[in-house]
Design brief:
- This protein is an alpha+beta fold.
- About 25% of the residues lie in helices and about 30% in strands.
- The strands form four sheets. Strands 7-6-5-8-9-10-11-17-18-19 form a ten-stranded mixed β-sheet, sandwiched between helices. A five-stranded antiparallel β-sheet has the order 12-16-15-14-13, with no helix packed on it. A two-stranded antiparallel ribbon has the order 1-2.
- Strand 6 (about 145), helix 6 and strand 7 form a beta-alpha-beta unit.
- It starts with a helix and ends with a strand.
Length: about 375
């Protein structure tokens, strides 16, 4: 195996220059932990919709290190089971595990504000690289990491052992946390969740911090950072945009089948106040998920190439269909919930408030609800009661 010391130091220097890496201890960790060990048995590189498998054994050592130390996210598993050593030609598939871009990993760890002696619970071990960075500073006994996929967990555990960390690698549903090792000073989730589970709040010390991506759309999600209070609640804000794979237990089932049949009978039809194409933007997409949790934005096309746009909420058996006519849009809505009414109201209020960015959103978690709001704007408040 080639010595990756130059690549590790180069990566640290790059992360310092782009502002993601600021702590001396974390720089030392990046310089010490070999990322390539955590990519075994290989990665898939995106080649226009197909994934080319690349393994360390089948690649020139210098090229392998160049790939390992790219600042891109590297896909390590497709379709919940396929790894790069199992195929030799490009394949189609859906990424289900990855080594997140080092800039994102480091930026999230910086946001944890770690200190010596802190005990951390990580949800979503993935390759184990972020676990190793934290172990380098906190020590292996202070990091507990939970991964739902047994094969992914096994590979991460082997990689951690290979670089000298016998940490607490647990196979299980991270939404349940890991009460055996609680309480924790910090909880960090490297997967997106629809809402922060209250189990994480209960397993965090008073004054402790939880950091997690919230939202269920592929984009339009936010990085929430909340502090736990002694009354069993947690409060904080969205500190920026963030994009991670969805927690598998909460993975969205895509709307499929005959969409024309699913939207055949509408209860109402009117012109929209704002164009639904606003949902292509990050902040409006985030607001749509606050206003209509459970809704999905669906794009499709007719056989003649005409583009179709919908919002569906399968659980609430409701839909909104959008029809373009020049610069205007008509919305047809059906089902017990007028989805677009709720989303549109949020978008209009957001525009009226001056289109504040995602880092103005605050949230409060209680045992029975999640509340999101933007200060000074009573129209921009949403309460999600837990079932």
């Amino acid at each position: 195996m080639n010595d990756s010391t130059p690549e590790r130091h180069g990566l640290a220097e790059l992360l310092v220059r782009n502002g993601a890496l600021t702590s001396l201890w974390l720089r030392k960790a990046v310089e010490a932990v070999p990322r390539e060990v955590f990519l075994d048995p290989g990665v898939f590189l995106d080649e226009g919709g197909r994934w080319r498998p690349v393994t360390a054994g089948g690649t020139d050592p210098a090229e392998w290190l160049e790939i390992a130390y790219t600042c891109d996210t590297l896909t390590t598993q497709l379709n919940g089971h396929l790894t790069a050593d199992q195929v030799s030609e490009p394949v189609e598939g859906i990424p289900t595990s990855s080594s997140t871009t080092p800039a994102t990993v480091v930026d999230m760890i910086e946001s944890l504000d770690l200190a010596t002696g802190h005990r951390v619970l990580e949800i979503g071990t993935g390759t184990g690289y972020s676990s190793a960075l934290m172990c380098h500073y906190l020590g292996e006994d202070n990091v507990t990491t939970v991964e739902v996929d047994p094969e992914v967990a096994g590979r991460a555990d082997a990689a951690l052992e290979a670089v000298g960390f016998s940490t607490w690698t647990v196979t299980g549903d991270g939404l349940l946390g890991h009460p055996r090792r609680a309480p924790y000073d910090r909880v960090i989730s490297t997967c997106a969740v629809r809402r922060i589970p209250h189990t994480w709040v209960r397993q965090t010390r008073t004054g402790g911090m939880i950091l997690s991506t919230v939202g269920s759309w592929p984009y339009g999600t936010g990085l929430a950072r909340v502090t736990v209070d002694d009354d069993g609640t947690a409060e904080g804000r969205i500190i920026g945009r963030s994009s991670f794979m969805q927690a598998r237990a909460q993975a969205v089932v895509p709307v499929a089948g005959d969409l024309s049949a699913r939207t055949a009978y509408a209860d109402s039809e009117r012109e929209t106040k704002v164009p639904p194409t606003m949902l292509d933007e990050w902040m409006p997409a985030f607001l749509a998920q606050l206003a209509a949790p459970g809704a999905q934005l669906v794009r499709a096309a007719r056989s003649d190439g005409t583009k179709l746009l919908y919002v569906f909420d399968p659980e609430r058996e409701s839909f909104a269909q959008f029809i373009a006519d020049g610069d205007t849009w008509t919305v047809r809505q059906g089902g017990p919930v007028a989805l677009w009414d709720d989303i549109e109201e949020a978008l209009v209020a957001w525009r009226h408030a001056g289109s504040p960015d995602i880092d103005t959103v605050r949230l409060r978690i209680t045992p029975v609800s999640h509340v999101y709001w933007i200060d000074g704007n009573p129209s921009l408040l949403w309460e999600h009661r837990l079932a």
